[in-house]
Every structure is written in C-alpha cells, then in structure tokens.
Amino acid sequence: MIAPRFSVVIPTHDRRGPVMRLLRALRRLDPVPGGFEVVIVADGCADGTVEAVRKLDTAFPCAVLEQSASGPAAARNLGAAHATGDILLFLDDDVEPRPGVLRAHAEFHAQVTDGIAIGYLEPLVTARGFFGVVLRGWWESMFEECRRPGHRYLYSDLLTGHCSLERHAFERLGGFDATLRSHEDYELGYRAIAAGMNLRFVPDATAVHHETSELRKTLRRKIDDGVADVSLLRRHPALGVSLPLARRSPPGLIGRVAAHLAAISPRVGDWFATFAQWLLPAYERVGLRFRWRALLEDLLDYWYWRGIVQASGGTEELAAMLRKAPVPAEPELELDLARGIAEAEHRLDELRPRSVRFVYGEHLIGTLPERDGAERLRGIHLRQMIVRHFAHEYLRAAARAGAIPRALPELPAEILNESATRPTIPPHARPGLVV
Amino acid sequence: MATAIRDVELCSPLAAIADLGAYSRCLLVFRWRRRVVGRQFVSVFSDRLDTGAIIQAANQCAVDASYRWLADTIGYDERDFVGARALTATVAICTRERPEDLSRTLGAVTPYIDAGHQIVVVDNAPRTSRTREVVERFRGVRYVCEPTVGLNVARNRAMREASTDLVAFTDDDAIPEAEWLDALIANFGDPRVLCATGLTLPIELETDAQELFEDLSPFGRGFRRRIFDGQHDNPVEVGRVGAGANMALRRVTIDLVGPFDERLDAGTPTRSGGDHEMFVRILAAGYQIAYDPAAVSRHRHRRTHDELRDTLHGYGVGVYAMFTGLLLERRELGVVRLAWAWFRSAHLPELRRWLLRRPPTPTSPFILAELRGCLHGPAAWFAARRLRRNADCR
C-alpha cells in the first residue's frame, strides 16, 4: 500500500503571529512516509501575513493563496481545491500541532475507510478568572463524549479546527458550505454522517489550541451561531429537534425576557445586555461564581436568540420552520437483550439501524428513536446506551423475567413499579461558548 | 460493647455470621464481586447473625448492588476512555514516628511494586531512626527524609520526588486493599480529572472512641462513583469529595493549581485542612475530582477518648483555618454560608444543650471540642501564616 501524502490546509485572517508559530510547529512534526505540503489561504489579510510566510524558509512545500475576505469555509474550500495530497488535514491558524499529529492521522486513515479523524485540541487559555475557567471547561467538554468508547457520533462533533479526511471524500461531499460564517463544520458533519462516513475521535492526534478569546467578542459571536443554526435548519429541517433553537426559548425568567426582547425590540435588548455585561466583573470581584455563571448563560442566550431572530425574521417564522421536522418513524429493529449483549452488538453491527426497540424477553425496556444528524447505530454503542439511558428499565425488565440472581437484594418498589417512560435521548446541551 | 466488622459477598451463598459474642453490633460491608455496594450496622443479640438478619440489612443497598450487577452483566465500565494510556503511580506515605502503623501499611502496599509502581515513604521531621529502620525491611521502598515539619510539606516533597504520572497518598494508619491503586488510577482516563479519592472504611471498631468517631466523622462518601466538576459544583463544598488519607493526584497538579498549602495540616498550628484546600483549588480552576468507592482503604481510628477529642478539635481548627485563608486570599464568600450551615447543623444544637445545662449525650464533649477548634481556626491560620513567612525569610 502506498503511503498517503498529506495536505495541511490553514485558513487565516490577519493573524500573522499565530500563523508563523504554526509553521514553526509544522517544522517539528515527526516525518511520515508520504510527506506533506502546506496550503495557507489568506482570507482578506492586510497584516503582512502573505509576505511573512513567503519569506519563511520551510523544509516542506508551502503555498500561499489569497482571497478577498469571504470567510473560513470559502478559504478551506479554496485550499482544498489547490491541495495535491491524498489526505486533507484542516488546522486553524491558532493551533500548534504536537510532533506525532501526522502519524496519528495516517494510522487512523490506514485503519478506517471513509473516515473523518477528529483531532484533540488541547486548550491553552489566556483569559484569567472565571471566564478563563469556563472557556477551558467548554473546550474540554466538546471532547468529553467523543472520549467515551460507546459514543454515538453526531454532526456537531466535527470541528474543522483540527480534522482530516481523504481529499476525494471531501470532493464527493462538495466541500464546506461557503455561505455559512459559523457552524460550517457542523453542516459538513451532517452531510458526512448522512453519506455514511465514519467520524472518529483520535486522541493521539493532539494540537495545542491557543485560545485568546475575550468575553465581549465571545458574546457577540453568539449572534453568528444563531444565524448559522437557522441556516442549518433551513437546509436540514430534520435537524430541528437537535438544535438549541428547538427549545423555543431559554430556561429561566431572565433568559425568557431576553429572548422576548431580542424578538420584539433588539435595540432595547442590546442596551440591557450591554448593561448586564458590566455586572460580570462586579460579581467576579466578590467571588459570586454561580451568579456570574448564570448571568453569562443568560447573555449567551440573548445574543444567540438575537442571531436567530435576525436570520429567521421572527419567532413565528422560526416555529413554522421547526414544524417542517419529520415525525420519527417506528423503530427499525427490535433487539432482545435476554439473548445476550454480544449477540445484540453483532446484530447492530450487521444491520446498522437508525432506531431500535429494546426488549428483555417479553418485557419492554425502551425505544431509542431515530435521531437526525447522528450516525447509524453500531454494536459499540450498546453498553453505554443501556447504562446511561435504560438502566432502570433494564433492571426492571430483567427482574420481571427472573434474570437477576437470587443472591441480590430485591429491587425497591419505586424501580419495580415504575411505569413512566424515561427520556430515551439526553436533552441537547445548552449552547456553549462557540468561538 | 464493641462493633464487629464483617464483609458479606452477595455473589456467594449467604451464610450466618458466628463468633460475635464479644460484640453488641456488627457493621456489615456488602460487596458484589469485591466491589463495596453498601454497609449497615446491625444489632447483635446472641453471638451470631442469621441469614435472615443479613438479608434484611442488605435491602438498603439493593439499588447499588443491582447497578453493579448490571454493569458486570453487560461489561461496562464508566471509567473507560478512548486513548487512555497506562499510567504509572507512586504510592506516597507521609509519616512521623509511627513505625508500627507504618509497617502494617507497607505490608499492604508493597505488592504494588510488582505491578510496576513505586513506593516512597516521606519521614517528616524525624526524632528517631525508627521509621528508616522499618522502611529498610521492605525491598523496593524508597525512604526520603523531609526535615521541615508539616504534613503538607511532606506531601509536596512526595510530589517533587515522584517521577510517575500519578502520586497516590495513603496515611500511615491505613491499609489499602489489593485493588485500591488500580481503582484510583482507572479514574484518570479523562484529562480533566486531576484527583481521585476513594472509600475509607474502619479497620476496627473495638473501642467506644472508635465507634464514636465512625458516627461523628465517617470517612466514607457513599457507594456510587461521582465526578465533582469545578465547572458546575461549588468548589468550597469539598467535605463530600473525600480525604487525603485516600487520594491520588496527577503529578502536574502542582504546576496547574500550585503545591499543597504548607501553612495547613498536621505539624502546623492549623492541624488539618491541607487536603481539602487542595480540592478547593482544583475545583476552582475548573478541573475535576473523581470519587470512586472501588478504591477501598481501611483506616484505624483513634482508640481513646482523649485521642478522639484531640482529633476532632484538630478538624475544627483546620476547617476554619482553611475557611479563613479562602476568604481572605481567594475572596471565596461561599465559605461564610458553609461555616454557618455547619455550625447550625452540627454545633448549635450541642451549644444550646450546654447553655441550657441539659444532660450531655455521649457525643457532646467531642462536638464541643470540635466547636472550640472552629473558634480557634482563624487565629491558627494567622499563626501558621506568620510562621511560614518567618521560615521563608530565613
């Protein structure tokens, strides 16, 4: 088998310092048999990035392309179009790959066909205080579920800050949607999963992410997220239930008031939000951590809803879009867990259903409905699904079927007699600090 | 009369427990395939407990036992993470002039050497050579002498001496079980976890003082694994996180959140609180602490009333000294509410009883000793700070 050649595609906009740092880190990469090239796309740069990169003496081929400011999605598409390697490795300009990155990506693609490798971005946060803590926690939480062996990959797991896929697969997917200014990675992830591609987290592919976001900028970027989520909903109506906007309005009185203001009077809402933002440092000075956190969440919600209203035209229009989401179909498969976990896993791997009903003999455990934007089920998902979503139901069904060993104490009545159906899918996370 | 302690393995056929003639109570520790799933005190009326009484006592741990059965049946371990690599650990025992206890602890931990781990004994400000002599009897155990007195000084020395990924701390009066170290290590698959703590059970409850300690200040924190996350949990509420007698830290913890505060804990005027202050900083920085009841260690509680009174007084001093430091240096206003909540639930009823001259309960003198310690805590913190500054100047 011929060793693949990598094309490292880096979009950048007026960040000469970080780009030079990244290029120096690329010099230190462990070599891979197929080698690599670098394609830098200067997206409307006016800070001398292009000249600085051209002057730099690199040991690897390094092309610099220029385009008028069109956004990172268009820049990545341009870079990919000029790439000659077999595998595209997308890196953001504020990351610094560890030496073993290429080797880890190469090993992944040698093992997984039609795969998209999601690399780990180790956050190096410059912000101090409560915001720094929240920002780092938010970055780490993005990889939390991916680290679990039984994770069922979602469209939103794809992060273009550090990912790789075969160039032909990227072309087949049609590249990024260049009209999106935010969440273009999620949109590509959606199409990749729909096309049957395999998203996987590759923990050994690590790059340090120099996170320099400021609170003010982070809040304003939530508008872009709101706009992007409306665009995602327009393109893929079935995603409606998975997007944060499907909650219709944020939890809590202040959040609801803020969302209402965003809809009826953005000017007043902006004024309130700006005023409330001044309270954050005051809370931090006296150590009111939870009040600070709650206010931040409300502000994030406000700016997110500002973007949603701006892009959708109003809450009524948004509701009309959400109504277009299809009704989940009946489960594609029924699995009897009384026959053993190994057999159930085997059937999931064989049939790869979108939805499944679990039973234990003649006793119902629960139903995992179809979820748009999530990969088809695999055997490896099963154990985690049972423990995290159906533990009580499994125990109850096993007890009724007489499968629990007699030596164990009898389950309490509140579990045995529970009749209400528990949620089958965890609720969608609150919109995070998307930066 | 004393309390017997007996393990009950639920996956084996239950049998009556005999030879309890010397005891009025029995602490039953329920296990499912070695994992502790619950415990229950049972009164002993004859010299044995029949299976009926054991089954009845076991009912309170039905849910936890069933969850363990479920996890075993389907083969699921929530501690598994993609790409988690094998981590190495150093078991650190900080000790001071307790050679008999240390010998027993070393006997329990030296088998970890065969699994590729290391063991270091930090002899803190020794007055005799007895600790060194005990260590020399155990092959593969490293002896380090730390001349500056203070448990947190010794802990920092252990962190600096270690070359492994993790440092696991056990007290010199504790006996970790065979699975203890592996169970702690298993919690570090997630890079956000900086610290893991385990379940500490008593070795013996042979004296009145030991029984009272178990009632007043049990080390156990429940039988379900729990993640304390600095992103969501209140960082100053660390009483439920665990204790320094049974904990492991990533070695990089001291780079990320700083070393143990050498003004706190045994050997200083503050007498305790050094482990909890580290927990606070880990959580306040947004990292995680895992509490895992699979990591079981047995602790020998103080045997006499005087020792118990002194220990609880020390806890009071240490906790309020820690609160003082957190309030003045980190502006953690949450400690005020916490201090009030503790006073109201634990100390105020006892204070009221004392003021109204009502007859004391068996625990009254010890709770009042703890309260006296609390009142002394802030002054102890200032005294410890002054001593540390003087030492730094020298």
Task: Note down, in words, how this protein is organized.
- The complex is a heterodimer of chains A (435) and B (394).
- Chain A is α/β, with parallel strands linked by helices.
- Helix content of chain A is 44%, strand content 17%.
- Chain A has 16 helices and eleven strands.
- Chain A has helices spanning 16-27, 49-55, 72-82, 101-111, 129-144, 167-173, 184-194, 215-235, 253-264, 266-285, 289-312, 315-322, 341-351, 382-389, 391-400, 413-416, and strands at 6-12, 36-43, 62-67, 87-91, 95-97, 115-125, 162-166, 198-211, 333-336, 356-360, 363-368.
- In chain A, the strands form two sheets. Chain A has an eight-stranded mixed β-sheet with strand order 3-2-1-4-7-6-8-5, with helices on both faces. A three-stranded mixed β-sheet of chain A has the order 9-10-11.
- The two termini of chain A are 40 Å apart.
- The model of chain A is unreliable at 420-435 (pLDDT under 50).
- With 394 residues, chain B is an alpha/beta fold.
- In chain B, a hairpin with a 2-residue loop joins strand 2 (23-32) and strand 3 (35-43).
- In chain B, helix 3 (99-109) packs parallel to helix 5 (130-136), helix 11 (305-330) packs antiparallel against helix 12 and helix 12 (334-355) packs across helix 13 (364-393).
- Chain B is globular.
- Chain B starts with a strand and ends with a helix.
- The model of chain B has no long low-confidence stretch (mean pLDDT 93).
- Classes of the chains: A alpha/beta (435), B alpha/beta (394).
- Chain A binds chain B through residues 133-134, 136-137, 140-141, 144, 146-151, 201-204, 285-290, 341, 382-384, 386-387, 391, 394-395, 398, 404-405, 407-412, 415, and chain B through 10-14, 32, 55, 58-59, 61-63, 65-67, 69-71, 73-76, 78, 80-83, 189-192, 229-231, 234-235, 284-286, 330-334.
